[in-house]
């Protein structure tokens, strides 16, 4: 009778990791519950799992960990291995994941990120989709808080000379740095401007780039270039950054609908923060063998 080598089979088990594929308005994530399985090298894991050819494929990796401040801590990693401070869609997916595995009837959860703690309330379910209201951090406009290298109290309508041309950006932090472009872009050029703005030396930590167009005082259209990712179909913090910048300029009402390629978020300015309404869903669960992927032996 053949017997498995306990060392080899143990090593093989360690290279297999369970995950859950989740998405919110077609902004997709691989979620790994680090409370149940150890995650030794999250940047390498993100590069391996987010790869759309040899991995699971996703915009971002979410690693769940225990928290002393909230129901769960989530660390956020981009496909290039860099770590993000906050994700509006990612924290909503995380809250829905926690609620689905918690006490029956429980409808609220708190999620800690590097940027702080957000609160999430389950409004309703429609099939696999979970609709939540999230309270996220208040926007910050001080250049040092964004951060952006600019003198003055705020960096609104900051002129940038770029390879593809010149644009004005308004800078805000929604848990992570956002550069908002309200004029001078269209569907043919925003993907050219995106990387030039993301990596502009005026942003010491790079920036997410939100190309926004005010439709009317109640509606905003946004296209999104995400730091460390590239073009994405939706972003909770990107939508919030665009809303906050346009609101700062007096262009929008306090409650709006933000239309993105992946769907619509509802945003409302409230005292001390923003309310975000949107859906998310679990797509599938799986197990992946990491051997030979993303630097894993």
Annotated CATH homologous superfamily of the largest domain:
Diaminopimelate Epimerase, Chain A, domain 1
The CATH architecture of the largest domain: Roll
Give the class from helix and strand content and strand pairing. Answer: alpha+beta
Net shape: globular
Strand adjacency order, main sheet: 1-2-3-4-6-7-8-17
Question: What is the mean predicted local confidence, pLDDT?
Answer: 93
Give the helix level as a range of percent. Answer: 10-25%
Number of strands: 17
Order of helices and strands: HEEHEEEHEEEEEEHEEEHEEE
Low-confidence stretches: 1-13
How is the main sheet built? 8 strands, mixed, barrel
List the helices and strands and how they pair.
Layout: H1 6-14, E1 16-24, E2 27-33, H2 42-50, E3 60-65, E4 72-77, E5 83-84, H3 88-100, E6 108-113, E7 116-126, E8 129-136, E9 158-162, E10 165-173, E11 177-181, H4 190-198, E12 208-216, E13 219-226, E14 230-232, H5 236-248, E15 255-260, E16 263-270, E17 273-289
Parallel strand pairs: 2-3, 4-6, 11-12, 13-15
Antiparallel strand pairs: 1-2, 1-17, 3-4, 4-5, 6-7, 7-8, 8-17, 9-10, 10-11, 12-13, 13-14, 15-16, 16-17
């Amino acid at each position: 009778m053949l017997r498995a080598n306990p060392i080899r089979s143990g090593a093989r088990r360690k290279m297999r990791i369970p995950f859950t594929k989740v998405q919110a308005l077609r902004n997709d994530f691989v979620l790994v519950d680090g409370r149940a399985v150890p995650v030794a090298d999250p940047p390498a894991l993100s590069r391996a799992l987010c790869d759309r050819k040899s991995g699971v494929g996703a915009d971002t990796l979410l690693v769940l960990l225990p928290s002393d401040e909230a129901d769960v801590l989530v660390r956020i990693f981009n496909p290039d291995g860099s770590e993000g401070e906050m994700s509006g869609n990612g924290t909503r997916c995380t809250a829905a994941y926690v609620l689905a595995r918690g006490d029956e009837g429980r409808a609220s959860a708190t999620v800690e990120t590097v940027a702080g703690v957000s609160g999430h309330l389950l409004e309703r379910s429609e099939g696999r989709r979970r609709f939540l209201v999230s309270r996220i951090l208040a926007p910050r406009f001080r250049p040092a808080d964004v951060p952006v290298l600019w003198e003055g109290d705020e960096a609104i309508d900051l002129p940038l000379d770029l390879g593809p041309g010149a644009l004005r950006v308004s800078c805000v932090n929604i848990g992570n740095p956002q550069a908002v472009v309200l004029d001078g872009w269209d569907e043919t050029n925003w993907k050219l401007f995106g990387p030039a703005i993301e990596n502009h030396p005026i942003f010491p930590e790079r920036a997410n780039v939100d190309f926004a167009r005010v439709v009317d005082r109640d509606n905003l259209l946004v296209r999104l270039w995400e730091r460390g990712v590239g073009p994405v179909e939706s972003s909770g913090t990107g939508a919030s950054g665009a809303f906050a910048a346009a609101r700062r300029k007096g262009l929008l009402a306090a409650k709006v609908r933000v239309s993105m390629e992946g769907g619509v978020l509802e945003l409302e300015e409230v005292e001390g923060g923003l309310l975000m309404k949107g859906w998310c869903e679990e797509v599938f669960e799986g197990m992946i063998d990491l051997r030979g992927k993303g630097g894993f032996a």
